[in-house]
Amino acid sequence: MQLQKIIFIFLISFLIHNVSQAQDPYVRAPLAGREMATNDQAVIPQRFMALTNANVVDVRSGNIIRDVTVVLKDGKILSVGKGTPPSGAEVIDLRGYYITPGLFEGHFHGAGAGDAKRALVSGVTTAKGASVDGFMDVALSDMVKAGYLVGPDIMPAGVYVTPELGNTGAILADPRLYKYANQELYGEEALRDVVSITIDRGAQWIKTRSSGLTSRTSGPDALAQAYTDSELGAIMDEAAKYNVPVSCHSHGVEVIIAAIEAGCTSIEHASYIDDEGLRLMKEKGTLWIPTYISVTGFELPHDDYTTTIARQRHPHLVENLARMIRKGHEMGITILTAVDSSYGPDSVYRVAGEINSFIEFGMTPIEALQAATIKSAEAYGLLDKTGVIEAGLEADLAIFDRDPLLQPSVMHNPLAVISNGRVGLDRHVGDRKVLSAE
Q1: Both 250 and 132 in a single domain?
Q2: pLDDT digits (tens, 9 = 90+) for 193-224
């Protein structure tokens, strides 16, 4: 009798537990393993196009390949050269316009479809994430890949691995981050955990920092080291387990050196870098993403980073960065284009501005364009996919009405942009759109 009573109580407890879980609105299946809902009608088509009478900027050789036809099909470049357009293709006369590869944005904070669209219409077809509040960049990346959004291909970074993580909305993005609420994120074990969670959620880069900000005084100082050497090492080591590179937000000389020594793949900003920092960067083969154009905006009235302290520091920052970019280029350091913006509705930074700034600092026009295309593709391990206009690669193109090697300012004014064979920008010129078939 006693045994029957125990079994009865156990069965009742089991049923109550399972019913309560089924009815609990907060109990749900984990995100991992869920399949994306599909709707073929919502997928934006990849057009079969033959772009005739085109002048192609060959970023490998630095030459212009004149009066050729570029054929795009199924999101890829089918061919580049002379000859009759293939049967079935939309034949589009480019009237002598210039085609460059789509541009790389190396420090993308975009977290919405509008941000991705604004980046795309500026010529950007590939973007390296620089962290968002949560994993919105992972979702954007998935939408672009699935064809529901015409935007840049995004290498997402997910949440920012930073001491302030626990006091931001980013911890809401995954239940495994809740335990870090209302506290600062320090310690090798905790940092490894956050890195692992971020990669598990789809991050292709980890974004951390070794210093504070140049544009604020309310937070950590730009010259102060955010994490100890051992903590930085733990971040690098954990990411390396998954073959995921790490980008480091760094400003002061000492913290730049600490980040390089720890093994950061790329140094972001480096506003106060000096000769010693450049020497170590060259020695270790570290990528430099200076985001110079964002610093020039410190004096704009509605800039993304407008603060009193930013305006105060602006003269020194722009002078030092300009001088060091020139010197770094002469040393052969890999310097890549980026903007450091969310591409919000009022943002004004664009990769074209970084390209033109690089030219001011000693790069030739083709070298500056290469920094935004083939050099970025090579540095990020994507040269087998994009970065040049060649058969078999992704149909990532930007179209201009003037030669960007003779008039680089035209990079600010693309007429059409194509990403993965999907048209994201197609402006009217005269009585027709640029990509209208004959």
Answers
A1: yes
A2: 999 999 999 999 999 998 866 544 445 676 77
pLDDT in tens, 59-118: 999 999 999 999 999 999 999 999 899 999 999 999 999 999 999 999 999 999 999 999
CATH classification of the domain holding 417: 2.30.40.10
Reported as a pLDDT band with limits 50, 70 and 90, residue 18 is very low
Is 78 within 8 Å of 90 (Cβ atoms)?
no
Q: Computed from CA positions of residues 163, 168, 170, 173, in that sequence, does the dihedral angle turn out positive or negative?
A: positive
Domain that residue 279 falls in: 103-379
pLDDT value, residue 314: 62
Q: What's the rounded Cα separation, in Å, for the pair 314 and 389?
A: 38
Domain assignment of residue 24, yes or no? no
Quick one: which of 331, 373, 334, 332 has its CA closest to 351?
A: 373
Q: Give the burial class of 54: count Cβ atoms within 10 A of its Cβ; 0-12 exposed, 13-18 middle, 19 or more buried.
A: buried
Residues 127 and 92 in one domain: no
Residues whose CB is less than 8 angstroms from the CB of residue 320 and which lie 6 or more positions away in sequence, other chains included: 271, 272, 273
CA angle 364, 370, 374 (to 5 degrees): 165
10 Å CB burial of residue 55 (0-12, 13-18, 19+) is: middle
- Regarding whether 86 and 156 lie in a shared domain, the answer is no
CATH number, domain at 169?
A: 3.20.20.140
Number of structural domains in the chain:
2
Q: 108 and 90: one domain? A: no
- Tokens 């934006």 correspond to what residue? 44
Give Dmax (Cα) for the chain: 96
In a domain, 387, yes or no: no
Please give the Cα distance from 312 to 315 (Å, whole number): 7
CA dist 134 and 167 (Å) reads: 13
Which residues pair with residue 100 across a beta bridge?
398
Whether residue 42 lies inside any domain: the answer is no
